[in-house]
Design goal:
The chain is mainly beta and 125 residues long. Helix content is 12%, strand content 38%.
C-alpha cells in the first residue's frame, strides 16, 4: 500500500528501473534528426541514459525498429550521433526509443554529464 505524499513537492529524481542497465532522466532537449547526416526533422529528447534516449517525433515521420538514424544536438558543442531505433512505443507522444551507436569516449563522458545534470534536483532559492 502506498503512502500519501502529504502535499510535499516531489523532487526530480533519477529513475532507475531494475530491468535497465543505466539511469534514465527526464529531459527536454531540442534536436534535429534524420536518416543521414543531414538532419531535416525536428524532435525533442524526452528522456536520456548514457546508452540511449527517447525521441518525441514532432513531425510524425515513419521510423521502424532496426533503422539507423542520426540525431543532431548541442552537447555542449554541435554533435551528430548515430542511433538505432529500438521501438516506436512511447507513452503519451509519437516517437521512438533508440540506443546510441559508435560513441567516442568524449561523447560518452558528455552524455554522463548530461544525465547527472538533468538528474539533479532543482532547488528554489
Amino acid at each position: 500500500m502506498k503512502k500519501a505524499s502529504k502535499g510535499r513537492p516531489r523532487a526530480r529524481a533519477l529513475v532507475m528501473d531494475p530491468t535497465r542497465r543505466a539511469t534514465r532522466v527526464p529531459t527536454s532537449i531540442d534536436i534535429k534528426w534524420g536518416f543521414g547526416e543531414v538532419c531535416a526533422y525536428t524532435g525533442t529528447i524526452i528522456n536520456l541514459t548514457v546508452l540511449g534516449c527517447a525521441v518525441h517525433n514532432k513531425e510524425g515521420v515513419d521510423v521502424q525498429p532496426g533503422q539507423i538514424v542520426f540525431i543532431q544536438f548541442w552537447m555542449p558543442s554541435e554533435r551528430i550521433l548515430k542511433v538505432e531505433v529500438m521501438h516506436t512505443a512511447l507513452q503519451a507522444v509519437p516517437g521512438f526509443g533508440a540506443r546510441f551507436l559508435d560513441l567516442t569516449d568524449e561523447e560518452k563522458d558528455t552524455l554522463e554529464q548530461l544525465v547527472r545534470l538533468f538528474g539533479e534536483p532543482h532547488r528554489d532559492k
